[in-house]
Amino acid sequence: MNYIAAHPLRVAELALAHVELVAAALVVAFAFALPLGVLAARRPTIAPWLLGALGAIYTIPSLALLAVLVEAFGLGFAPIFVALVVYAQFMLARNVAAGIAGVDPAQVDAARGLGMSPAQVLARVEFPQALPVVIGGVRVAAIAMISIATLGGYVGGVGLGVLIFNGLTLHQPQMIAAGAIAASAMAIAADALLRLAER
To answer: Whole-angstrom Cα distance, residue 167 to residue 180?
Structure first.
């Protein structure tokens, strides 16, 4: 807390960069996860394989994945951004699939009876009905991404991880605590806001 009180602007700057990183990665991750989730909901035979593959990717240790991504992209913003997008797929796609699969078939049949195309049924009936479950996935993914994003400091990225890894390098526990406390507060705030949206 002493470091936060002594360097509020520095902590605020890194916290803002952390939010921007997570928000951008979450948007890109959802753009990939939405069609994957719809595919899993539409094709029950391949859903276990698809979601199983995404789950297997999610179990890869963060530092191991980052090491591979650093080899591909170098140090900086790119490896941690790609890692966040990859890790979020399992949580987002799974909830999209679960939400769409849970829509009342009678509503879908009624929409088709009115002449709606498959795309219109998805956009006007299924996705709105699935939205609470989808937002639940976004909430879980956002919290996990806030935590994983702190590893960005390890690969020369941005965000509160810079404080944590600089503190480790310089043997400054106050810097480590400042980064950890700020990241935890951010995760709690994101959870609270997205819980309200989910309801």
So the answer is: 11
Domain that residue 90 falls in:
2-198
CATH number at residue 99: 1.10.3720.10
d(CA 164, CA 52): 33
Who contacts 14 (Cβ-Cβ below 8 Å, separation ≥6)?
Answer: 158, 159, 160, 162, 163, 179, 182
Q: What is the pLDDT of residues 32-51, one digit of tens each?
A: 999 999 999 989 899 999 99
The pLDDT assigned to 103 comes to 87
Count of domains forming the chain? 1
- How distant, in Å, are the alpha carbons of 47, 56, 75, 154 from that of 169? 44, 32, 17, 10
The string of pLDDT tens digits covering residues 65-102 is: 998 999 998 888 899 999 999 999 999 999 999 999 88
C-alpha separations of 105 from 124, 125, 135, 169 in Å: 14, 10, 21, 57
pLDDT at 138 over 90: yes
Helix (H, G, I), strand (E, B) or coil at 103: coil
